[in-house]
Specification:
- By secondary structure, the chain is an alpha+beta fold.
- The protein contains 10 helices and 19 strands.
- It is globular and about 70 Å long.
- The termini are far apart.
- About 45% of the residues are buried.
- The structure holds iron/sulfur cluster (2 copies).
- The site of one iron/sulfur cluster has 16 residues, from helix 1 and strand 7.
Length: about 425
């Protein structure tokens, strides 16, 4: 095993291959607070990539209702249970979340799925994981809208109603795709070396010619985003809509576009981009890149289950009504600060949040032009001031993509078209 730096864990860790950072890395931020589970993202992916015979059970993009839902069923509870057994002395985060980009969440002290030697069997020698049963792949939207109730049972409501900071009856929607991990478990486990990470954008792909369908990737991916196709007998996974990322989609030739699931998002929760990396896999400082800002400056977006150890490149703004212990387990120790900042956003954060889904073209930079003060008040006892700033998004070559304002523009329909679309 090689030693690689996992900045999300704040330490080096064991991984079967030496680190090799791509030039840029495919990454995304999902704002869970805004997801309405319309499943437009799910269907955009399905109708683009997995509509063929043999792919009926495949949902590369899915949205599940937490805490009970999951595709495949109970995927995170199962892998968390395995990790708990691999860490009999307990696993914990030490040190406070800080400014150092190599340790933004402190240090994780515990075994990852690559370090659980005592749990590995001869059949899965490299990565701790499990193979879901066929039944577990059957119901992608099971437990939709089922809340945690008074006694922690599904479907019950708490008698006192709900109020922030934590609802007593709660659920939330977790939108998921492959995280195109920095240290992919699928790649680490493949005995054929059929899985590779592209040096130009970090997208993780399965070579369909090389794959022999051993399903080691399905077993190893802790997020269960590699899937087996019965009629071709090879595995498949999210390809990050790479023709769009490469600028080859006829929708806008030559321009890097966000993926289909991002572009279709009705709730405007999604932003995807390509971030610059240092040689050791940490994010290079790119202060005016919106993803760099959200993850490393405002720190409102956090990785999904960083303790797994794959260094996922999907980041989430946590849902602010959910009990914190549940969120800390899911997103690590940065949760409390992230929610505090999101609830009381400063001027820059409020402006950057307006960039979500104003365009399908990938954003590589932004600039804010100050506008007038439009609101002054308090939110849950803390002062909030809102300015109607203008935020401008720039593309790959520095060209302006669009500009928008903090206050949503109001369009009044002309009287003769009042009832038409
Ligand atoms: S999420 Fe799973 S399938 Fe995707 S790169 Fe990471 S380990 Fe591989
Ligand atoms: S399209 Fe957006 S809002 Fe709708 S389910 Fe998907 S992530 Fe949520």
């Amino acid at each position: 095993m090689a030693r690689v730096l996992n900045w999300q864990l704040g330490r080096e860790m064991a991984y079967p291959y030496a680190a090799a950072s791509p030039e840029r890395q495919f990454a995304f931020v999902f704002n869970i607070n805004r997801c309405i589970a319309c499943q437009s993202c799910t269907m955009a992916c399905k109708s683009t990539w997995t509509f063929s015979k043999g792919q009926e059970h495949m949902w590369w993009a899915n949205v599940e209702t937490k805490p009970y839902g999951g595709y495949p069923m109970f995927w995170d509870m199962k892998i968390l249970g395995l990790l708990e057994r691999a860490n009999p002395e307990g696993a914990r985060w030490t040190g406070a979340p800080g400014r150092d980009p190599r340790q933004p969440y402190g240090t994780f002290e515990g075994r990852t799925i690559f370090e659980a030697e005592r749990m590995l069997t001869p059949d899965s020698a490299r990565v701790l994981g499990y193979l879901p049963t066929d039944e577990e792949w059957n119901s992608p939207n099971i437990y939709e809208d089922n809340p945690v109730g008074q006694r922690g049972r599904p479907g019950e409501f708490h008698e006192t109603g709900e109020a922030l900071p934590e609802h007593k009856t709660w659920f939330f929607y977790l939108a998921r795709i492959c995280n195109h991990c920095t240290y992919p478990a699928c790649l680490a486990a493949c005995p054929r070396k059929a899985i590779y990470k592209r040096p130009e954008d970090g997208i993780v792909l399965i070579d369909q010619e090389e794959c022999r369908g051993y399903r080691k990737c399905v077993e190893a991916c802790p997020y269960k985003k590699s899937m087996y196709r019965g009629n071709t007998r090879v595995s498949e996974k999210c390809i990050a809509c790479y023709p769009r990322v490469e600028g080859k989609d006829p929708e806008n030739p030559g321009v890097p576009l966000e993926t289909r699931c991002m572009a279709a998002c009705i709730g405007q929760i999604r932003m995807q981009g390509l971030v610059k990396l240092e040689r050791d896999g940490t994010w290079a400082e790119d202060r005016q890149h919106p993803l760099y800002y959200l993850v490393h400056v405002a720190k409102v977006a956090l990785p999904l289950y960083p303790q797994f150890g794959t260094s996922p490149n999907g980041f989430y703004i946590p849902p602010r009504w959910v009990p914190r212990p549940y969120l800390r387990q899911m997103f690590g120790p940065g949760v409390d600060e992230a929610i505090a900042r999101y609830e009381h956003p400063d001027r820059e954060l409020l402006a950057v949040l307006q960039l979500f889904r104003r365009s399908n073209r990938m954003i590589f930079g932004y600039r804010i032009f100050e506008g007038p003060k439009v609101y002054e008040g308090t939110v849950r006892g803390r002062p909030v001031t809102i300015y109607n700033d203008t935020v401008v998004a720039y593309g790959k070559d520095g060209q302006e993509l669009f500009r928008t304002t903090v206050e949503e523009p109001i369009h009044v329909r002309p009287a003769q078209h009042a009832n038409s679309i």
